[in-house]
């Protein structure tokens, strides 16, 4: 479904002097849940942005369903079926939750359907549907709305950049259910989650560990996760509670 | 009602959302003449004799009634100043819909200066909706200079929604208000300028007595080479609360000037001003692009939400 081939990404003046991603290659087949983990500053979020088209690679190619999508912009990739949930959701003055869900779904979504998406991310739908996506919403509320917009898109590939950040423990369990359901609800769909939470790693099929812009290791969860427990690439629940 | 042509009908729809004769009292002014008018049992519309304009008398206790007074101009080069006074009796609750649409296909400048005065009686409430709109391909300008004066008596309230989104080349808006005890003024202004248009909007609001309050929010977008100026002077002379906000999006080579002014003459006056000018945030556009909108569609969506 998705393949990154020899992807490098440099930043800095004159075409880039600092290497953020160095010659990264991996594949995510259909029906897979892949979690990309690794220490902070390792390039995880950059990989997510490269897939969505928000950043363009300095070298290498990205293939989606067999097509080279490297030259495509964000909109074109979205239309091909790539969904992306921001790590830090964006606020909009004057745009309501239902407006954003309607844009995401690409149709005149009914209030009942919109409420369904909100309920699945643990928001009491009636309280939120007409709320403006502005500074009056908390970070956790925005984060859940952000996830709901990706659910509403029903894309074949959904990329979530640290979806658990700012979400409390109760909702966290709900979030795990959301990923499970999302995967089973769309035939042949795959999910990529950027996260170093142990419980998210635990639902992965594949785990990729990214460190200093290169893949340190990757493979099936059963093999990789035990090696990560206790490192900064697999943080347990206590850490989540502290973070929140 | 006299027959209106297609352009006139379109202007009426734009400024007053009218497809036919409205319910209740109304006056439709077209090319400097009243072409249709109806008073109701409680709302009487009388022409002024000394100057062009009307006196609108609303009887005390008039509730859930409306008066529409749209103005449309399709003759190029027409210039006029119109004085409309609203006398709202005590304990009323009415909707007033004004607005002016100018279609100028010629070379002469068309200008409508509407001077509106509102005398809102004790414990009355008005909702005032004013839309300004311009169209036509002529080189003549479409100019609108509304002057609004509001006098709020004890316990009364005025909610004013003033919108100018499209096609007006030049506008100087002045709004003044005097507030008595326990009265409340709420203003929502929406403004968009494009091309080489200019818009100047100024407010002078005096909170004269205890427990009066004012909330003035202006949201605007300046595109292309257009210029906007928003100026407010809010004076608290008693125990009162006042809030003004000017929130603007600047695009292309637009220019926006925001001049906030707060003046407190009483230790119990609580006055707040917020002002922000900025371009559309890049991450807003990217977020909407990840939902499948093009960059241009994303921009339009953000602006239409902002000006909603």
Labels describing this entry:
heterodimer, A: 244 residues, alpha/beta, Rossmann fold, 6-stranded mixed sheet, 4-stranded antiparallel sheet, 10 helices, B: 308 residues, mainly beta, 10-stranded mixed sheet, 3 helices, 22 strands, 56% strand
What is the topology?
The complex is a heterodimer of chains A (244) and B (308).
Chain A: E1 2-11, E2 18-28, E3 33-37, H1 44-52, E4 59-64, E5 67-68, H2 74-80, E6 82-85, H3 97-105, H4 111-120, H5 125-128, H6 139-153, E7 157-161, H7 169-185, E8 190-194, H8 198-201, E9 206-211, E10 214-220, H9 221-228, H10 237-243
Parallel strand pairs in A: 3-8, 3-9, 6-7, 7-8
Antiparallel strand pairs in A: 1-2, 1-4, 4-5, 9-10
Helix pairs in contact in A: 3-6, 4-6
Chain B: H1 6-16, E1 25-30, E2 33-38, E3 43-47, E4 53-58, E5 63-68, E6 71-73, E7 79-88, E8 93-97, E9 100-103, E10 110-120, E11 125-135, E12 142-144, E13 147-152, E14 157-166, E15 170-179, E16 184-193, E17 198-207, E18 212-222, E19 227-236, E20 240-250, E21 255-264, E22 269-278, H2 282-290, H3 295-306
Could you characterize the architecture of this molecule?
The complex is a heterodimer of chains A (244) and B (308). Chain A is an alpha/beta fold and 244 residues long. Chain A has a single domain, classed as P-loop containing nucleotide triphosphate hydrolases (Rossmann fold, 3-Layer(aba) Sandwich). Chain A is built from 10 helices and 10 strands. A 6-stranded mixed β-sheet of chain A has the order 6-7-8-3-9-10, sandwiched between helices. A 4-stranded antiparallel β-sheet of chain A has the order 2-1-4-5, covered by helices on one side. In chain A, β4 and β5 form a beta hairpin. The longest helix of chain A is centred in the C-terminal third of the chain and has 17 residues. Chain A is globular, with a radius of gyration of 18 Å. The two termini of chain A are 35 Å apart. With 308 residues, chain B is mainly beta. Chain B has one domain. In chain B, strands 3, 4, 7, 10, 12, 13, 15, 17, 19 and 21 form a 10-stranded mixed β-sheet that branches. In chain B, β3 and β4 form a beta hairpin. Chain B is globular, with a radius of gyration of 20 Å. The mean pLDDT of chain B is 92. At the A-B interface, α2 and α3 of A face α2 and α3 of B.
């Amino acid at each position: 479904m998705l393949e990154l081939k020899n992807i490098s990404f440099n930043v800095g003046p004159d075409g880039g002097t600092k290497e953020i991603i160095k010659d990264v290659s991996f594949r995510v087949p259909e029906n897979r849940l892949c979690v990309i983990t690794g220490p902070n500053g390792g390039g995880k979020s950059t990989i997510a942005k490269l897939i969505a088209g928000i950043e363009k690679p300095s070298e290498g190619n990205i293939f989606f369903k067999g097509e080279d999508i490297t030259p495509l912009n964000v909109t074109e990739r979205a239309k091909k079926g790539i969904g992306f949930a921001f790590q830090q959701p964006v606020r909009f003055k004057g745009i309501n939750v239902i407006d954003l869900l309607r844009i995401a779904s690409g149709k005149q979504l009914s209030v009942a359907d919109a409420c369904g998406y909100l309920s699945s991310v643990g928001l009491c739908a009636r309280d939120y549907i007409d709320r403006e996506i502005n500074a009056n919403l908390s970070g956790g509320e925005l984060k859940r709305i952000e996830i709901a917009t990706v659910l509403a898109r029903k894309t074949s590939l959904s990329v979530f950049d640290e979806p658990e950040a700012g979400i409390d423990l109760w909702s966290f369990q709900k979030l795990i259910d959301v990923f499970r359901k999302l995967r089973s609800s769309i035939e042949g769909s795959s999910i990529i989650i950027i996260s170093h939470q142990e419980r998210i790693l635990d639902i992965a099929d594949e785990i990729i560990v990214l460190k200093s812009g290169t893949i340190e290791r990757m493979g099936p969860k059963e093999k990789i996760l035990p090696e990560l427990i206790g490192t900064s690439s697999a943080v347990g629940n206590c850490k989540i509670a502290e973070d929140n | 009602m006299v027959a209106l042509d297609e352009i006139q009908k379109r202007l009426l729809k734009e400024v007053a959302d009218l497809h036919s004769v409205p319910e209740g009292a109304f006056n439709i002014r077209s090319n400097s003449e009243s072409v249709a008018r109806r008073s109701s049992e409680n709302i009487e519309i009388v022409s002024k004799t000394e100057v062009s304009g009307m006196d609108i008398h609303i009887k005390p206790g008039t509730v859930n009634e409306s008066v529409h007074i749209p103005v449309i101009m399709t003759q190029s080069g027409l210039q006029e100043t119109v004085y409309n006074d609203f006398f709202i009796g005590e304990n009323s609750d009415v909707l007033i819909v004004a607005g002016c649409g100018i279609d100028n296909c010629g070379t002469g400048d068309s200008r409508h200066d509407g001077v509106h005065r509102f005398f809102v009686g004790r414990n009355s409430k008005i909702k005032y909706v004013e839309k300004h709109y311009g169209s036509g391909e002529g080189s003549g300008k479409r100019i609108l200079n509304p002057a609004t004066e509001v006098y709020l008596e004890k316990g009364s309230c005025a909610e004013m929604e003033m919108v100018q989104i499209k096609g007006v080349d030049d506008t100087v808006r002045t709004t003044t208000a005097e507030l008595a005890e326990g009265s409340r003024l709420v203003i929502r202004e929406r403004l968009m300028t494009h091309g080489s248009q200019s818009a100047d909007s100024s407010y002078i609001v005096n909170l004269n007595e205890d427990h009066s309050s004012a909330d003035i929010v202006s949201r605007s977008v300046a595109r292309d080479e257009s210029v906007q100026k928003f100026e407010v002077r809010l004076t608290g002379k008693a125990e009162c609360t006042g809030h003004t906000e000017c929130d603007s999006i600047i695009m292309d080579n637009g220019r926006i000037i925001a001049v906030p002014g707060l003046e407190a003459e009483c230790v119990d006056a609580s006055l707040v001003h917020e002002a922000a000018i900025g371009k559309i945030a890049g991450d807003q556009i990217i977020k909407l692009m990840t939902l499948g909108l093009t960059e241009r569609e994303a921009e339009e969506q953000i602006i239409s939400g902002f000006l909603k």
